[in-house]
Amino acid sequence: xxxxxxxxxxxxxxxxxxxxxxxxxxxxxxxxxxxxxxxxxxxxxxxxxxxxxxxxxxxxxxxxxxxxxxxxxxxxxxxxxxxxxxxxxxxxxxxxxxxxxxxxxxxxxxxxxxxxxxxxxxxxxxxxxxxxxxxxxxxxxxxxxxxxxxxxxxxxxxxxxxxxxxxxxxxxxxxxxxxxxxxxxxxxxxxxxxxxxxxxxxxxxxxxxxxxxxxxxxxxxxxxxxxxxxxxxxxxxxxxxxxxxxxxxxxxxxxxxxxxxxxxxxxxxxxxxxxxxxxxxxxxxxxxxxxxxxxxxxxxxxxxxxxxxxxxxxxxxxxxxxxxxxxxxxxxxxxxxxxxxxxxxxxxxxxxxxxxxxxxxxxxxxxxxxxx
Length: 372
What we know:
- This protein is of the alpha/beta class.
- 32% of the residues lie in helices and 23% in strands.
- The protein has helices spanning 84-97, 103-106, 153-157, 182-195, 208-219, 242-250, 254-261, 273-283, 288-301, 303-311, 353-356, 358-371; strands at residues 3-7, 17-23, 30-31, 36-41, 46-50, 55-60, 67-69, 73-78, 112-118, 121-128, 136-139, 162-165, 201-206, 224-230, 318-322, 341-345.
- It has an 8-stranded mixed beta sheet with strand order 9-10-12-11-13-14-15-16, sandwiched between helices. It has a 4-stranded antiparallel beta sheet with strand order 1-8-6-3, covered by helices on one side.
- It starts with a strand and ends with a helix.
- 45% of the residues are buried.
C-alpha cells in the first residue's frame, strides 16, 4: 500500500505560495507519473503541477480559488488497494505535522546583488551557489532581466556558482546600449566577467541573450567552457518578430501589453497580471524605451544575426534548447547549425521553455554543466 502527497510546488526562488486554478483530473481518476494534475498560478507564471507518482487521485484537498503556501498538501495519490481510512489517516498526519515556510527565512537574499563597471557601463549582477568552480552565466532576453532565471538558478546553483547579468538597457543596469549591436552587448558581458575576475564560464543565454552568449564565445576565445542557447534569436531565417518587439515598446497600458506578452508562451493564459505589470514598470524607467528601440532596430535589420550565423563554426559545440511553437524567434533551422551543435526540442513550450518547462530545461542545464 502506497499513499503519496501532492504538495504545492516551489517554482523558483521567489515563490512563497500558489493559487489553485483548475484541476485536470477528478477524484477517483487513474493518473500516471508526470501526468498533468492541476494549473497553479504564481506571481510569475501560471504552470501545471504534475503527479509525482502513478496511482489513483484519491483526494483533492484544495479547490479552485484557494491559495496555499509552498509545501502545503493539495491532493493525495494512492494505490487502489489503499483503504479510505488509510488515506484519511495519511491526510490527518500530514496536516498535523505540516509547518508553513518561515517567510522571513525564505526571503533571505539568495541571489546576492551588486553592480560592476564593465568598460564604462554599470551592470547589475546577481550571484548565488557554490564559491568554487567554473560559474554558470545567465544572460536574459529582450525586455527581461536577471529575474527571468528564478526558476533555474536554484537547481543550477546546487552544482556550480551562478552569475546572472542585467544586459545594458535592462533591469538595474545602465540604459546606455551604444549602437545596440550584438558585439557591443557581448563586449560588455565579457568586460563584466573580467571585472569579476572570471576567466572561464558556462554561458547560458535566452533569446537575444542567447545571441549575445554565442557572440561572447566567438569574439572572446577561451571564456566559454560550455554554451547553451535557449530559444535563440538569429538561428531562424524568419528573424525576430517585429510585432513583438514593437508591441513591447508601444504598449502603455496593461490591456495593450497583455496580448503582446501572450506571444511568449504556448499557453497564453499562463501570462499573469504581475508579469505584465513588471514590464510596464520597467518601461517607465528613464531611457528604457530608447534602449529597447535601438535594440529592436538592430534585430529587425538582421545584419548582426547573419554575421552570427556565419561565425558559428568558431564554437566547437553547443546545446540549443528550442520549441517548435516559438512565435518570437521562429523554429530553429538545424541546417544552419555546425556539426558540434545539438538541439533539444521542448514540447508544450513557446518562447520561454526555461519557465514553461523548467524541470526539463534544468535537467538539461545540469547535465551540460557537469559533463563539460
